[in-house]
């Protein structure tokens, strides 16, 4: 059908101007589209539901149901998965442990608009899941295929066919949706989308994260084989979503950091246990480790195989979904006890440092220090790696910005330990606490990392001779990082919720890191010049001002007026003021003297606004 829609964007808050959403609507304020709607008849008998378990990451659906014998309304929450069933004649074979083919395999067709050189890599990304389905008892369960371009009976708009669609767009992304039966969670079809410019995304990640280990990444145009491998990884990740799998941000946290540098181990086992993690590439590996692509790329790994087994393995002995749930619970308890690397860390747990995007290893401080070592090498090499004749430094600027973003990720990974909470879901049969604070020594280690790697000026980021070719003011790049670190909505260092969690846990864990200890330690490292009677450079002055601004904002934040946060902030400000007063005239440096005088005046005014 053809439909016409009004098209405009909300007014810009600063300028008041309205920008149209589609260029075609610029003159008329409307846009006409041709739409295709495809209906699929659902099965008369729904597939048996598999009830959701928080310890295995699946997308879900749910509904409430009512029964005469209930004393409370119940909810059915079940996973989304394809209907994979053995042929009737193969059921006994499957029960004996033989691999069998499903009645109807999962098939993904490749959009014929896809550039030909990338099609085989997309197909490989689909077929890579076959090994995972073997864990569930099925062979040849999933295929990638070229679209039969000469078959006029088939249409890519037909919802009976699942397709990996190529989108000629500058958007640097890909996505993997699915459509399912709301009664059972049975996945009906999927149209994966991959934008052309996802290649820019994986190029930039790989150069900055793995460029020290893989010389193929030391240029702006990757060879076809390398880019094909990266597209294959994207394909596998998105196909995983269409199989029902959610992101497992905790998969990489069970890999010891030093194993990421062990060539034999990491090439055999991979740097993360799941391709559904955001663990991109092995940035911990150092050049001298000589680790090859098998230890740098993500792959379908042990968690993915376990998750597919849990979601797709037929449970023949179960009479219904509730009986099946109990059988799977016993399997889950035993499996996770036998192999902790199969732990699922939800992306929804933003305060658990094990469940983070883009991180690696079981110790974010060590992993980030290795990552920074590589960045310090890369920042020197970027002019050579990004060189293209006639380029007006746009390549260099782009990749240096990506380097800063990677450094920023390391800061975020470490900061999440401070006030962090480890959450491990358990069934009632299992002993132990579900929620525990991050160990005190780990939080102190995180603060020491900041003192070394960030509160002490990281001049290596902007000290290369080429900086004034790409930035008018390189120092502002560092100031932006300071603003990020002390922004409570972005980083936990000064987030009021961090102090509240610390206080709450101290009631149950007396040896945990307390808010008073933390704010004292933080103040000590940020104002150590006052104890050493040393001049304060411009970078540190900006940090101290930003820190004091954060304390004032938290002290006056009405949202937390009934907590201890305002009092804690006030106490810290008073101590900073006293400390500055005792160090008056400590340095023969006009900039330091002006800074401290101004800082004390501002603090005293904030503490006593009516004076």
From TrEMBL:
Pfam families: DUF4953, DUF5117. SUPFAM superfamilies: Metalloproteases ('zincins'), catalytic domain. It comes from the Bacteria. It comes from Parabacteroides chinchillae. Residues 18-87 form the DUF5117 domain. GO terms for molecular function: metallopeptidase activity. This is Zinc-dependent metalloprotease. Residues 219-532 form the EcxA zinc-binding domain.
